[in-house]
Amino acid sequence: MTHAIPRRAAVLLAAAALLTALPTPASAAPAAALTPEAVDEYLTETIATTGSPGISVVVTHDDEIVHAAGYGHDGNGDPMTADTRMRVASLSKAFTATAVLRLADTGAVALDEPVADQLPGFTMSDPRAADITVRQLLDHTSGLSDTTLDMPALSATGDLASYMDELADGGLARDPGTGWEYCNANFEIAARLVETVDGRDFPTFVREELFTPLGMTATTLGDTTDPPAPGYNSLFGLWIPRDEIRANLPSASGGVVTTATDMGRWLVNQAGHGPDLLTDTPTAAESDPGEHAYRFGWGYQTGPDGEPYLVHSGNLFTYNAAAAVIPGTGHGFAVLSNDAGLVDVTYTVLNGLMALSRGERPDPVAADRQTFELVLALVAAAAVAAAVTGALRSRRWASRHAHKPAWRIVARLVPAAAGVALLPAYPYLVEVLVNGRHVTWEQLTRFPLPLTVTVAVVSLAAAVVAAARLTRLRAANPA
């Protein structure tokens, strides 16, 4: 299972140095209508200003797909269309939740009974795990946490049964039901419950029970013989096609591959139209989210007009996605992109489409990615210049410090030493920003690539200066 680094980590690290403003909300410009022409104009301008390789969108209203289209190009250089397959990452959670609810609808699963009573083999070293209910898994209130689980080992497992075995040594961060914390493990356990109760493997279950009834013929879960085209990462303005970091596991928390058109069929269903997947069990749109504003794979928010809506984003290493359903108006929106940079365009576009649905005219999407990357490039260039200058002046530095006390020499070398330490400390700094979620170097070379390169250049520059000064100092003070 792949775990995306939440995008706020890279942005916060960059913003600390850049002090760049975030995108502004929709302006109070003259009223606009949510028409296909307005959507096309907005997305065409977005591609131009952001430089994103490709974006596809779908807009639904009640039981109809109002508009579905692609803009830009896919990972193979072909035009992006509404039928281009892309990864949607954590938007997958709503599918997994619905799979569980489908079994709850027939009485095969009890949402408010302990998982351990319904899933043989679900045991953990923490005895509190015996009290986790199925509903708590789907609401991220189980107490499971990335900080108390061996996420790399879990990600390396090849099937959900092995995932359960690896989970046995894990613990909880808090008592079940006492707090909210986003953790992908919740939905892998839920998927294993589906497999155990139903007998089919999870990808087959969702295909036969969800995708096929809804007509989502281009949608799959997990790697298939028809994978999506490679996505892109940006490095100082240059888009580089990259393979996704693949999971061994057919991840129930983030493994769905789909299209804008198929997402439209899904949004129609989530808004309460189309084939009835559930009869007696409330859907997310019909449910009270409760204290933590997350229910059945959807987050709950309130728009500027006071209208509540369901929303979720999906972030992987070369793809982004965002979706929303507004039960009160019957609108649904999904935005998929085949790129991942320091700024997630899909969520901004989603907000722009919702603004159009309110009769507002959204501001053009700002070129924040280019701004971040330009400043990072300037920081990297300045570090290189400082390294060259520091190395050339190292003889003069050594002559001035040759006869000073050792403590003063050490004190003068502290800034360079801090710069050298920046690179090895970098993953741990990111983990602090993302509340302890595990981060790997492979992940840091995907969407945060410009920041990672800048950190590496700054650290290397500091090492060059420190090494030059120490070499000159030793020559000035031979043993």
Keywords:
single chain; alpha+beta; Beta-lactamase; seven-stranded antiparallel beta sheet; 15 helices; 13 strands; transmembrane; transmembrane helix
Please name the fourth-level CATH homologous superfamily of the largest domain: DD-peptidase/beta-lactamase superfamily
Major sheet attributes: 7 strands, antiparallel
**Count of spatially separate domains:** 2
Listing every helix as H and every strand as E from the N terminus to the C terminus, the arrangement reads HHEEEHHHHHHEEEEHEEEEEEHHHHHH
Mean pLDDT over all positions: 89
What structural category arises from helix and sheet content?
A: alpha+beta
- Count of distinct strands: 13
For the record, the CATH architecture of the largest domain stands as: 3-Layer(aba) Sandwich
The total count of helices amounts to 15
Keywords: Membrane, Signal, Transmembrane, Transmembrane helix
Domain Beta-lactamase-related: 40-342
Pfam family, one: Beta-lactamase
Transmembrane segments: 374-392, 413-429, 449-468
